[in-house]
Design goal:
Layout: H1 15-44, H2 52-77, H3 85-103, H4 105-129, H5 134-157, E1 167-169, E2 176-177, H6 182-190, H7 197-208, E3 211-212, H8 213-231, H9 233-243, H10 245-250, H11 255-279, E4 284-286, H12 293-303, H13 308-326, H14 331-354, H15 358-377, H16 383-386, H17 389-401
Antiparallel strand pairs: 1-4, 2-3
Length: about 425
């Protein structure tokens, strides 16, 4: 007599079981957020809160932050704090404009990455080879980047057609495309403003309408980074340099080499973030175009707990607030966003309380109540505040997430070859 064994379920204690539980948790969280957004959209009448246009603006706002955040992730996983992301992005904006103007959009991407690598090389030489404090070196890179971009723009763009001492336009940008059929159908479905269904359709519409190839590359770099750093022997060695470089050295890892590779990859990604600003978010170059997005990229990496998926989540959140701040007549939208943040904070306070973190729960609850009072006592948000929205959201997110963060153990710590003894 034969018997059929029942299919086994993954043990929650195994790596497979933990990974499955994480995915289920994230799925529940995402669905809860979508339902919350839909409820607030209907309750406030702010249909643009999750429209295709708003989500496209959010995606455009998120991608340069995502590229900078991934750059910071590569560097810090090898133990090098890269405060210089802003300066590397700035040089990337100039490199993208210069090379795209003279040689085409593909050369613009390569030029942006190259300029980011040059700035990162300076940071790597200072921190890895000479042991300079990482923060000091990163700040210096930012100052040099800003000054260099102003100088290079004046030297190379002033006499060009469409150029000036601080700007350049008239170069070819990256191609964009829409998915035939799916794009129109999603846009039509989103226009009905149905509960949840239209919100999900808006997400599909934003991802299939007028999408740049660089947007696809930026999103693809998330799983590529995750696979490279967590599923390859190269990634294991690189991360070991950020956790315990002395132990890695005793196992034969060339710690200096891996730190250099990580920092240069970080600069290339930050440079691509600059290219996104000049070739996708805009079709022109302006000195100082990053507007602090390199710093927000660093914040998204910290909020994401030094994980690619977390960086993506933080970038989308910050990009959404950035996209809202750039939309016309955005006062009512930001006012509705205030209610959304309030609801999420109150829910997070409940989670903290149930986890036994009563002090944190009280603090989060107090902030949520204050925002609720602000929402109830006002009909709109002052226009001056809407421009501050991305930065305020960044501060809130970092303050709330600070208690669950774990940076690489040797991140920012000095290392000299042979110190393993």
């Amino acid at each position: 007599m034969s018997t059929v064994a029942a299919p086994t379920q993954p043990d929650p204690g195994t790596a497979l079981g933990r990974a499955r539980n994480r995915w289920l948790t994230w799925l529940v969280v995402v669905l809860a957020v979508v339902v919350t957004v839909s409820v607030i959209r209907i309750a406030t009448g702010a249909d643009r809160l999750s429209s295709v246009g708003t989500l496209r603006a959010a995606l455009i706002g998120a991608c340069p932050i995502l590229l900078a955040g991934l750059g910071g992730l590569w560097s810090e996983r090898a133990g090098i704090v890269n405060i210089g992301l802003e300066g590397q992005m700035l040089l990337g904006t100039w490199g993208a404009a210069y090379f795209a103007y003279h040689y085409g959009p593909v050369a613009g991407l390569l030029g942006a990455a190259f300029m980011g690598v040059l700035a990162a090389l300076l940071h790597a030489v200072a921190t890895v080879s000479f042991g300079v404090d990482h923060i000091i070196s990163g700040v210096a890179v930012n100052i040099i980047g800003l000054g260099a971009v102003g100088f290079l723009a004046k030297q190379f763009f002033e006499d060009l057609e469409g150029g000036g001492p601080r700007n350049l336009s008239g170069y070819e940008t990256l191609p964009k495309f829409s998915v035939p059929g799916l794009s129109d159908a999603a846009d039509s479905l989103a226009g009905h403003h149905w509960f949840v269904v239209s919100d999900l359709a808006a997400v599909v519409g934003a991802l299939t309408t007028n999408i740049s190839v660089l947007t696809i590359l930026a999103l693809a770099l998330v799983p590529i980074t995750a696979w490279t750093l967590w599923r390859t022997s190269f990634g294991l060695r690189l991360r070991s340099c950020g956790e315990s470089p002395q132990a890695a050295e005793t196992l034969g890892v060339n710690v200096y080499l891996y730190k250099y590779v990580a920092v240069l990859a970080s600069g290339a990604l930050a440079g691509l973030g600059g290219a996104y600003l000049t070739m996708v978010a805009s079709s022109s170059f302006t000195v100082g175009q990053t507007g602090g997005r390199g710093y927000i990229g660093l914040a998204s990496m910290i909020f994401g707990n030094w994980r690619p998926g977390g960086v993506l989540t933080g970038s989308l959140m910050f990009g959404y607030s950035d996209g809202l701040s750039l939309l016309p007549r955005n006062g009512p939208l930001v006012h509705a966003l205030l209610l959304l943040i309030t609801v999420l904070l109150l829910a997070y306070a409940v989670v903290k309380y149930r986890a036994g973190e009563k002090t944190a729960a009280v603090i989060v609850l107090a902030v949520g109540v204050l925002l609720l009072v602000w929402y109830l006592l006002t009909d709109s948000v002052p226009s001056a505040f809407t421009g501050m929205t991305p930065y305020v959201v960044t501060l809130f997110a970092l303050a709330i997430a600070s208690q669950r963060l774990r940076m690489p153990a040797a991140d920012g710590k000095p290392y000299r070859r042979g110190s393993a003894g």
